[in-house]
Write a structure and sequence with these properties.
The complex is a heterodimer of chains A (247) and B (135). Chain A has helices at 11-22, 26-37, 39-64, 66-126, 132-166, 169-197, 202-206, 235-244. By secondary structure, chain A is mostly helical. The N and C termini of chain A lie far apart (85 Å). Chain B is α/β, with parallel strands linked by helices. Helix content of chain B is 43%, strand content 16%. The chains are: A mainly alpha (247), B alpha/beta (135).
């Protein structure tokens, strides 16, 4: 054994080894040799053994946490269904409202045209400037207008009630979305617990975390425009930005 | 029926409205109709819109930005890159509100940018401005 390797065995170990050999304790002597040869390995094995046990325990705990399982297999698919329901509901409401409004437009236009038709003669009448023949024509015009207005205001009233009733989606979708928000909160807590279990601090991650964006930076509607300085708040901001670019 | 100055706009011009949500297409169509436009077609994303534009003599495109398939910004770039379409004015109506995106759209050659939610008055103002510039 060279001097350079002297650090691998201590005087105590050498004496111990000689003592075991002299007294014929072969097994103990071999154990000392093993210890001298593999000090690092045995520490490493002990450490790996510890980690393996921890990992095993962690995995077992995850399986035991059936709530996590329920979230993934039942609650989240259910939430997707709920959100799809919200899309359907709001789309139906928008279409019902537009059906009614599109039905109202031509009715209002007709009444407006009939008013325009009698207006010149009516103005003349008010100025005592209308002759008898014109008066007779005016009477027919006003008769048409009155009959039509009478009939159509009832029609418009019915359509307006349809618009009113189409707004009932807000109550239903509000309740559905609130349930989904509760679920998101629960998933968030579970994920934070998981991060904590792996020794990652959620607070430390939070600062640099930004919502994911798609191609061309698409992000959809910005709900916290006031708290951000990379987005415009309204059309005036857009116009200002564009005019600063020479638009 | 009150686009001003009267007659400055050709109400018979062929307009293509591009949006993946049918309700938004319907809203835009109603507003355009109210402004006197009668010749309006629809497409639900850029990749549907582009062949329609190439096949028909459209005069004006109103498009959303964020759509599955081909996005509005890519449709705009494709229109500007196609010699037979590059003259068509394009108005973006979108919820995308990042300053960087507005700059991106301006550089791609957009003619107007309306951020959602918007009003009928905003649409009218932007249309007047676009066609006033084009003369």
């Amino acid at each position: 054994m060279s001097i350079a390797m002297a650090g691998r065995i201590s005087l105590e170990q050498a004496k111990l080894l000689v003592g075991f050999l002299e007294s014929g304790q072969q097994e103990e002597a071999d154990a000392v040799i093993n210890e001298i040869q593999n000090p690092i390995n045995s520490e490493l094995f002990a450490e790996i053994g510890k980690l393996t046990r921890q990992l095993h325990d962690s995995l077992t705990n995850f399986q035991v946490d059936s709530r996590l399982n329920d979230l993934a297999t039942a609650d989240i698919p259910d939430a997707k269904e709920r959100l799809n329901f919200v899309i359907t509901c709001t789309e139906e409401a928008a279409n019902k409202t537009m059906d009614a409004v599109e039905a109202i437009f031509p009715v209002v236009d007709t009444i407006s045209q009939q008013v325009e038709a009698v207006k010149p003669s009516w103005t003349k009448l008010m100025n005592n400037d209308l002759d008898l023949n014109e008066f007779k024509v005016l009477c027919v015009g006003i008769d048409t207008l009155l009959k039509n207005a009478d009939k159509e205001t009832t029609h418009i009233h019915t359509l307006m009630t349809d618009v009113l009733m189409a707004q009932d989606f807000q109550d239903i979708t509000g309740q559905v979305i609130r349930k989904v928000i509760d679920l998101v909160r629960e998933v968030e807590e579970s994920l934070i617990n998981m991060l904590t279990a792996f020794g990652i601090s959620a607070e430390a991650m939070q600062e640099k975390a930004m919502p994911k964006v798609g191609d061309n930076l698409v992000e959809g509607p910005i709900v916290n425009a006031k708290e951000r300085d990379d987005v415009v708040e309204d059309q005036d901001d857009v116009d200002d930005l564009l005019s600063s670019l020479g638009f | 029926m009150n686009v001003s100055p009267e007659g400055a706009l050709n109400k018979n011009m062929k307009v293509l409205v591009v949006d993946d949500f049918s309700t938004m297409r319907r809203i835009v169509k109603n507003l355009l109709r109210d402004l006197g436009f009668t010749n309006i077609s629809e497409a639900d994303d850029g990749s549907t819109a582009l062949p329609m534009l190439q096949g028909g003599d459209f005069d004006f495109v109103v498009t959303d930005w964020n759509m599955p398939g081909m996005q509005g910004i890519d449709l705009l770039k494709a229109i500007r890159a196609d010699a037979s379409l590059s003259h068509i004015p394009v108005l973006l109506i979108t919820a995308e509100a990042k300053k960087e995106q507005i700059v991106m759209a301006a550089q791609a050659g957009v003619n107007g940018y309306i951020v959602k939610p918007f009003t009928a008055a905003t649409l009218k103002t932007k249309l007047d401005k676009i066609f006033e510039r084009l003369g």
